[in-house]
Specification:
heterodimer, A: mainly beta, five-stranded antiparallel beta sheet, 6 strands, about 55% strand, globular, B: mainly beta, seven-stranded antiparallel beta sheet, 12 strands
C-alpha cells in the first residue's frame, strides 16, 4: 500500500479509515495519521498539549480503505 | 441520509494533582478530531463508529458509541475564553466549599450521550481567570448512577476545575 504520511510535511495528515474489526464488523474512524509501518498504521484521535492521548493501531490487513482528508473541509469548534 | 461532519475541536478539562504543593496552574488545551453531534448542552465527539452509522440515529436509538468523548459545550476553548458567570460571587479563597460541576466523559461501547455530574468538597485554594483550584478534594460522581468516588483510586491533593464547568458552589464553613 502506498505511504500516505509525508514526514517532511509539518502539517497533520488527517485520514478517514474504514476497517474490519475483530468481530468481523465494519467500522470507520477519523484522526491524524501518526505512524505508518509495513504492517500497521496509527491513527491519533486526541492530544493534550500536543501529546498523544488516544489512538488506534490498525493492522493493514484490516483496512478496507484509507483516505486523506482535505483540511479545508474539516470544520473547527 | 445526512452525512456526519468531521470536526477539529479544542477543549479544556478538569484535572487532579497528587503533588504535595502546587505552583502555577493552567488549563491544558486538548485537541481532537471526530464526528461531532450536539446533545442539549453536551458535545459528543465520536472517534470510531460502526460502518455507515449516523450519529443522530445512534443517539435516537440509544445505540452504543464505539469510542468517543462527551464534553460540556462550555469546555470549548472558544467558549472558555469569554465565559461569564456569577457563580463565584462572594466566594473567596480559604473557604471550605462544595462544588458541583460537569465532567468530560470517555466512552467505549456504551450508550452514553451526556456528561457526568461531579460533587466535590474541598478548600478553595486559588481562583484564576478560567479555573479554580481546590485543596484536599473529595469527589463523588452523582450522575449517572451508581454514585461512586472519583477518581477511582488514590487521594488527590488538588483539583483544577474550569470555571465554565461549574454549575454551583456552596460555602460549607
Amino acid at each position: 500500500m502506498k505511504k500516505l504520511l509525508d514526514e517532511n510535511n509539518p502539517e497533520n495528515t488527517l485520514v478517514r479509515v474504514v476497517l474490519r474489526g475483530d468481530d468481523n464488523e465494519e467500522y470507520e474512524c477519523v484522526g491524524v495519521l501518526f505512524k505508518e509501518e509495513e504492517d500497521m498504521v496509527r491513527v491519533v484521535f486526541n492530544a493534550k498539549d500536543d501529546k498523544v492521548v488516544d489512538y488506534l493501531d490498525i493492522k493493514r490487513s484490516d483496512i478496507i480503505s484509507i483516505n486523506v482528508l482535505d483540511p479545508s473541509k474539516i470544520e473547527e469548534l | 441520509m445526512k452525512t456526519d461532519k468531521i470536526y477539529n475541536i479544542k477543549y479544556v478539562d478538569a484535572y487532579y494533582s497528587y503533588a504535595k504543593s502546587i505552583d502555577q496552574t493552567k488549563l491544558s488545551v486538548h485537541e481532537a478530531h471526530g464526528y461531532i453531534e450536539r446533545n442539549a448542552d453536551n458535545i459528543i465527539i465520536i472517534f470510531i463508529k460502526k460502518g455507515g452509522a449516523n450519529n443522530k440515529r445512534t443517539i435516537d436509538e440509544k445505540e452504543n458509541i464505539v469510542k468517543g468523548l462527551i464534553i460540556p459545550d462550555t469546555a470549548l476553548v472558544s467558549v472558555v475564553d469569554t465565559y461569564q458567570t456569577d457563580v463565584l460571587k462572594n466566594i473567596t479563597t480559604g473557604l471550605s466549599v462544595v462544588v458541583t460541576w460537569r465532567d468530560v466523559v470517555y466512552v467505549a461501547n456504551l450508550p452514553r450521550y451526556d456528561c457526568s455530574v461531579m460533587y466535590t468538597e474541598g478548600v478553595l485554594f486559588r481562583i484564576e481567570k478560567d479555573h479554580i483550584v481546590l485543596k484536599n478534594p473529595e469527589t463523588i460522581r452523582t450522575y449517572p448512577s451508581p454514585i461512586k468516588n472519583h477518581p477511582g483510586r488514590g487521594l488527590p491533593t488538588y483539583l483544577v476545575i474550569p470555571i465554565s464547568f461549574i454549575t454551583d458552589i456552596t460555602i460549607t464553613k
